[in-house]
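Fig. S4 source data, part A: sequence.
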Amino acid sequence: MSEMVCVGAIAGAYGVRGEVRLKSFCAEPQDIASYGPLSTEDGARNFDVTLGGAVKNGFAARLSGITTKEQADALRGTRLFVHRDRLPEADEDEYYHADLIGLPVFDTGGTEIGRVKAVLNHGAGDLLELQGPGIKGTALLPFTRAAVPTVDIAGQRIVADPPEGLF
């Protein structure tokens, strides 16, 4: 399991006084500010976060050390991470995306289908994006109990019963 978990991303400047538009990837979006300083993926920069009001697809936020629109714009696209031990434990049948990405996916007969490339949600529920040697490009597997009956984080594997014709 990864020690660092991506909890948000900076979508660009908000206004002219150094605030940013912050997208939160947390189950409770406002919790992003409570996990302590957030760091860039390479760990080179850390930011204390103060949330302002809600804006389209996120929050207006102030990051420590960012005081101008130009500084805020320069951070556009920056993903923000927190050390895993600052996050709450996942409930039963809940998983951090970071724990799923990279896991091998097997069918119910034990044949490896592929590996999880990403976990997506376009509004109708979570999807596992799979890639592998038998898959052209990628395939999307509904992340439901019917299609994915077993997720074994400790055993580092997922067992899937994909809908007919998906692969």
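Fig. S4 source data, part B ends here. The chain is about 5% helix and 45% strand.
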